[in-house]
Amino acid sequence: MRQVLRLTIPILQLRDVPAGATVGYGATWTAPRQSRIATIAAGYADGYLRCLSSRGIGILAGRPVPLVGRVSMDLITLDVTDVPEARLGDRVELIGPAQTPDAVAALAGTIGYEILPPSAPATGGATSSGRPSGAAA
Predict the structure, then answer these.
(1) Where are the extended beta strands (E) located within the chain?
(2) Quick one: the chain helix, strand, coil %, rounded to 5?
(3) Does 132 have pLDDT greater than 50?
(4) Which of 8, 33, 65, 106 is least surrounded by Cβ atoms within 10 Å, i.e. has the fewest?
């Protein structure tokens, strides 16, 4: 069986933060070193589980990047320090070939069926059959 779902979200913002800086509501993550933080427009309103706060992983340029801080209503922050070529607009894979719904579910302590995102226009990246969500057939 071949996976047909892929959810990728573009980087909206990149910020360099010093060691010791905190990220997220409630300052739940502290940078252990000088870090580069990417912000993407996805959150619990889009179906990305809050329990993945500081536990989830995105894939950027084929490499895992950890979610840092809390999953907010419509934003997620990721530590992209180890992907120095990261640029605004680069797409972060939240679900896809490198990260199946079952793999995300394992991080969340649930099952893959709870991970499948709604087909929300806000994400602009959920695809099946190669078309962006909301695209005409």
Answers:
(1) 6-17, 22-23, 29-30, 35-40, 57-60, 63-68, 76-79, 91-95, 126-128, 131-132
(2) 15, 35, 50
(3) no
(4) 33
